[in-house]
Write a structure and sequence with these properties.
By secondary structure, the protein is of the alpha/beta class. The protein has five helices and eleven strands, in the order E-H-E-H-E-H-E-E-E-H-E-H-E-E-E-E. InterPro entries: Calcineurin-like_PHP, Metallo-depent_PP-like, Metallophosphoesterase_sf, Pesterase_CT488.
């Protein structure tokens, strides 16, 4: 059983927002994702989606996108991104799709690992960071720590980290998120959110203060899944 990840699918089967306006590489990007996914993932594998799965503004509009994801091989673990306005209560979504697990204020399980995470937020010293951002940033850090502590209380010693936003600002300064990953000994973390080659330099990638970070936005991955474990 393998573990994969790919973020920022930005599907729009239920709404009119094609991604090719962001570049030719996005033309029919979902077909590229599906081709790679179906060639590698088996029904016993797991794929983590760290946010921005759908452009939909409502859950009903997102259902076409979620059905598309549900129809692909493997078990899917979906976290919330900043554009997932369709996201409703976990109670409403749980059980609606055979292969999808929605994670919010809790954690998922892969073999003997707990997969813990939250959406995250922009970090201090970002050029547009405001007092309101400070509140959300601290709240998201608390959610991350709660997720980790829940997994530890459940007996998990091996934990993987997930964010939607990058774990640092553009200057790659330490943040509450990086401090929590370090505090709890989490060595593997994925995130998304960053798009376009001109911006890929801003995300911390590889080993940083003892933690191995992986950018998994789908255009960074050339629309191919990242094999995590």
């Amino acid at each position: 059983m393998a573990l994969y990840a790919i973020g920022d699918l930005h599907l729009s089967f239920g709404t009119d927002k094609p991604m090719d306006k962001f570049g030719e590489n996005w033309t029919l990007h979902y077909e590229k994702i599906k081709a790679d996914w179906t060639s590698r993932v088996t029904e016993t594998d797991v794929v983590v989606l760290p946010g921005d799965s759908s452009w939909a503004m409502s859950f009903s509009a997102a259902e076409a996108d979620l059905r598309w994801v549900d129809g692909l091989p493997g078990r899917k673990i979906i976290f919330k991104g900043n554009h997932d306005y369709w996201w409703v209560s976990k109670n409403k979504m749980t059980g609606m799709y055979n292969s999808i697990e929605f994670i919010h204020n809790d954690f998922a399980v892969y073999e003997d690992y707990a997969i813990c995470g939250t959406r995250g937020w922009i970090c201090p010293n970002d050029a547009v960071f405001t007092e309101q951002d400070e509140k959300i940033y601290k709240r998201e850090a608390l959610r991350l720590e709660n997720s980790i502590q829940m997994a530890q209380k459940a007996g998990f010693q091996k934990i993987l980290g997930v964010l939607h936003y990058p774990p640092t600002n553009d200057l790659k300064d330490p943040s509450l998120f990086t401090e929590l990953f370090e505090k709890y000994g989490i060595e593997e973390v994925i995130y998304g959110h960053i798009h376009a080659a001109v911006n890929f330099k801003y995300g911390v990638k590889g080993w940083f203060r003892g933690v191995n970070y992986h950018l998994t936005s789908c255009d960074f991955l050339d629309f191919k899944l990242f094999k995590w474990l």
